[in-house]
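Below sits our specimen:

——
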Amino acid sequence: MLFSRPGRSIFPLLPPYGAHDPNGGRRIIPLNPDGITPYLGLRSRLSQVWLNRWTILLLLVLARVLIAVAGMQSDMGSAKREALSACTSVESMGSAMVSMPHYLSQGVNELTAAGVEKAVSALKTMLLLTITGVEELILFFIKVMYQTYLCLFTMVVRGSVHLALGVVEDAADFLNSTVKSIGQDIHKSVDSFESSLNSFIDDINGIASALLGEIPKLDISDKLDKLDSLSLPSSIDSTIDKVNNSIPTFDEVDKYVTNILRTPFEEVKRLVNGSLSNYTFDRSALPVPAKEQLSFCDGSDGINSFFDKVAHITTTARTIFIAVLIIAAVLVCVPVGWQEIRRWRTMKERSQLVHKDAHDPMDVVYIVSRPYTAATGVKAASRFSNSRRQILVRWVIAYATSPPALFVLCLALAGLFSCLCQYILLKAVERTVPELTSEVGQFAGKVVDKLQDTSAKWAADANSAIADTNTDLNKNIFGWVNTSTTAVNDTLDAFVEKTTGVLNDTFGDTVLSGPVQEVYDCLIGLKVEAVQKALTWVHDHAHIDFPLLPNDTFSRGAADSISDGSSNPSDSFLADADDQTSNKITEVVFRVTDKIEEGIRTETVISAVILLVWVVNALIGVLRALSLFWSRERTRGEGGGGAPMPAAPADSHGFVDVPLTAIPDVASHSQPAPRYEGPAPALAVSRDIPYGDEKLGSVGQKALHVDGISDLRGSSYVEYGMEKR
């Protein structure tokens, strides 16, 4: 389409000097006689190489990194102060913890002493019950053994005595009755004989009394009366009764034997009651640890070395970033300078396109001003055969790489690169955090070690007191058991050995040796062996051992809280209830790193959003190009391409109207502009452009004015005159 515009000055689009050739030939713009040009030459361009966008962006990245390093150093300084403060708190808490045995031991000592006293009381009760039980069992066993024989013995003895007493009584009664009967019979016979004899004597006395005198009479009545009263003495019965009464009864024997057997057991009970009734554990024998004071924060190499290392890392990183980015900013000037040289040369080469009538002037200006993006578009457009699509591809690339778009892209990339540098610095710092965690673990380990030492020392002293109690009780209570069982076992061994020797000497060479040995084993040997086993068991188990206190009585909980097997890290005695980390000191560092990480994340999101803006802008261009890419090209009647214009020679002032057609210049050997086929050639219409002379300072040059209608090409896909894209 053709548009008319009022006359206007084309200065400074074209230089006033040498702007026309009076001979009407091709224009050759000479240099100023002094070599000065209104545009920048090569040396001027090279003098501004250090102001290229990449150097500036790298310097901006360096500035952001330096700000981040300074912020990290400030945050780490605050973190160091907080960590030292937390360390002091931990130190105070650790001192309180290692002093806890001083307070806890008093209660534990009382608990231990009370436990020993209760155990001794229970031991006394158990011993009394055991002794009573053993006493009754032994009595039962002995009674079973001796009462059988005692019953038989008592029966035999008492039966014999009763039998003898009955015989004596019967004999006495018989003798007494027989003697009296005989005496009476004798008395009767003697009385009869005496009566007869006395009668005879009386007769004799009557005859011979005159001659011989009187013969005495026989009188034995008194003697016979003694015979009537003859009987066995009663002392015989009393003696037998005395013997009978002197034989003990079974109840008396049982009571006597029982008293004999109970005597040692009752004595043992008396000893046990006397030793254990009022037993009191010596509480003064249990130790009380002294208070402890820890000091591992003053001059602590752990925290100071960690933050010194972090400061060294940040300083080193700052130095590295300064060196690398400055070197990169300086080195980038080299390719940029070379780029400027090539761009200058390319501009000089492509500036000749202005004199050619085969190219669009705006395209030429774009190619000259943006050589690299234009070259990229040309290369991408070369994949298409249709000139319309080639132009659309070049337009998309030009749209996506316009100065505003490239500014947004470079800003986003610079922001992402800055975030990357900060991320590298953050990771370098985070790699040192385990060292601090390890050092803090050593703090906890120091507390636990101190607790373990205190607990072990206390346990050793307390266990020594308990061991002394064991020794005392075993000696005073069970010492006689060991001595007596050993003596009885030795006695039984001697008895068995002696008895076996006698049996072997007596029946060793006879056929009765085996039976006698079997009878001995059955009656005596097995019972003696069982008694020896029982005595051995009593000897081995008749002692007391109170359980000892473990060495980690006061340190087990603290040690478990920092062990690797702890299920909940917040159980650590260095952790507060609200902390998410294992202790307060590392939580300070993690808070700083989390803050820095959050800042990096925010900057990354901002840079990504800026990059997304560039992507959206590029997508807009792509979508616009695609809408034209697949649409039908309009004809001239539909508002498409303009009418063909014949070519016109140069006017009298030496200006040549440049046709806006895309006719390739096959005669040109320099082809910096794209070579793609365009529509059919059309002749351009030339119009004379009058201008007037005008003084320009002392040089005397004339300004050039253009009146009338400018020659512009209308296109179905690009209208350069309307700046439509």
